[in-house]
Amino acid sequence: MNKMCFLAMLLIISTLANASGEPIIISHKSPETSSDLRESYNTELITLALEKSKAKYGPYKLVEIPPMNTARLLYTANTNNYPNFLTEMSYMDSLTDNPEITHIDFPVELGITGYRICFINPAIKNEVKKITQVDQLKQYTFGQGIGWADSAILRHNGFRVIELQSYDSLFRMVAAGRIDLYCRGINELKKEYDSHRDITRLTYDESFALVYDLPRFYYLASANKEAKERMETGLHMAHSDGSLIRLWHKYNDENLDFANLKHRKIFRLENPYLKKLPKDFRKYNVDPLK
Fold first, then answer.
1. CATH of 112-214+260-284, one of 3.30.420.10, 3.40.47.10, 3.40.190.10, 3.40.50.2300
2. pTM of the model
3. pLDDT tens across 50-103, in order?
4. Measuring CA to CA, which residue among 290, 8, 54, 270 is closest to residue 155?
5. Handedness of CA 205, 208, 212, 218 (dihedral sign)
6. Residue 89 and residue 108: Cα distance in Å, rounded?
């Protein structure tokens, strides 16, 4: 089935579902590659929120859409091409200027993505261990994906950033020394390291972590009011009864042990792109340093 037929089918199913009381369709993205495990938490979290809200809102159906990069995800949410499409993205003030998209009022990663550990060029690993001040890192190049909020944050703080189209190529570039550092959330580091063991010389820094506010929310088309209301209700219900925290620990306890934050130098950076976001999002954060 080609993409246009698939899209038409989803839209027809969604329309019929809304008219007949059948399950609401919620679309979300599939992993970018077969080794990309980042979507597992998202899939379970969306399912948890929909289950918690099922008694009030009725049945649902989850549908995966083809993988795409950040810029394409934002375009897809903006154009509402798939029924009730949700995409998890880092908040930036500029996104609130677009009336066609909105975010669900709950920081889905509970703050963990703001703790960043870097895959590192093997040739500089030993010298980076000796660094004591964050400014000393500014001599190195930092790889990021195109359109990622981290690129703007790092540049604001004076770092040199190289943006690449391909998620997987960033691992190969840092292992080959073509970029010096490629920083990932501590919720991502271990599974990405494990799933890219085939890359010769891939290694990560063990001496420091960058820390900055990087709240992530589910974004969707503003027109999808029912899906937004349902997901917000379900997420807050799951947080209140503890099931969301249990899910978070299921995915992150091993990551926290692997990150070993208490034995790292912590360099805190400013994220200046949160001025339009109410600061109470931090009340949901779990502090990985405790």
1. 3.40.190.10
2. 0.87
3. 999 999 999 999 999 988 877 888 888 888 889 999 999 999 999 999 999 999
4. 270
5. positive
6. 10
